[in-house]
Amino acid sequence: xxxxxxxxxxxxxxxxxxxxxxxxxxxxxxxxxxxxxxxxxxxxxxxxxxxxxxxxxxxxxxxxxxxxxxxxxxxxxxxxxxxxxxxxxxxxxxxxxxxxxxxxxxxxxxxxxxxxxxxxxxxxxxxxxxxxxxxxxxxxxxxxxxxxxxxxxxxxxxxxxxxxxxxxxxxxxxxxxxxxxxxxxxxxxxxxxxxxxxxxxxxxxxxxxxxxxxxxxxxxxxxxxxxxxxxxxxxxxxxxxxxxxxxxxxxxxxxxxxxxxxxxxxxxxxxxxxxxxxxxxxxxxxxxxxxxxxxxxxxxxxxxxxxxxxxxxxxxxxxxxxxxxxxxxxxxxxxxxxxxxxxxxxxxx
Length: 349
Fold this sequence. Notes:
- The chain is mainly alpha-helical and about 350 residues long.
- It has 14 helices and 4 strands.
- The chain folds into 2 domains: about 170 residues, no CATH class; about 170 residues, no CATH class.
- One of its GO terms (cellular component) is plasma membrane.
- It holds the Pfam family PTS_EIIC.
């Protein structure tokens, strides 16, 4: 096997390992949030939960989502370099998923994946250092975690995060200049941005853009965005039900959770599927979300709250087109997945 093929195989294995350890957290977070938010009422600041028990359940769901990305990063690194890589990668995954540095940059699951890989290979390099026997016993529990976290963390904060922050600022400024232009193009862009990293910085850029326009009483871009957030998880969930030979039992179980998350506008429900099969899943959900966003813009759908999915239907202007846009965009993604994904081997399935 060539070095390139071995590298790709190792990375695929690492991603699959990261996803398998992340899945329980996604399921717990998604199900608890879905139940709690379904009892809330739409307000200007999102879904308001008034029942104390449901608030507590919501907090448990939020906690599940909070550790989802660190788990992904940690076990990607663990797959590559073993136990010494686990804690540093989880710390760095947490950093990637939260605002950091002077620019308060957040890179989400894409940043966590990159840091997980970097941690794994950096730790493997550290393990090759020639050190005295007395120091070697301290390497996995003291020296490697500290050195890895410090070097990669500071590299991320001072080198990687800064240009990403500048890029995001430029993107928001560029999007604002497009307001008033082609509704189709703007809807396509908002929809695609919503799905491309599923709750990450590009998604949040679309959110910031639509919230800024809401402050000016312009609600159609928010309508397109809130349509698009539901499409990736709904598409993945429905795809697992329709094309059962293309998914593992684990995927099928996760698909049910993804449907619940889609109904309440939690795009992150599609992340595990994208991590496992990015080349086929990402194009499908980006295209479907772009179609949904464009349909919403063309038909002047307005979402009056900063939340998404069918759960906000009572506070949507243009309810019929809001639901049709979600349905059509979802079906587009499901159709693309049907033709792009291959059947699994019987043993895998």
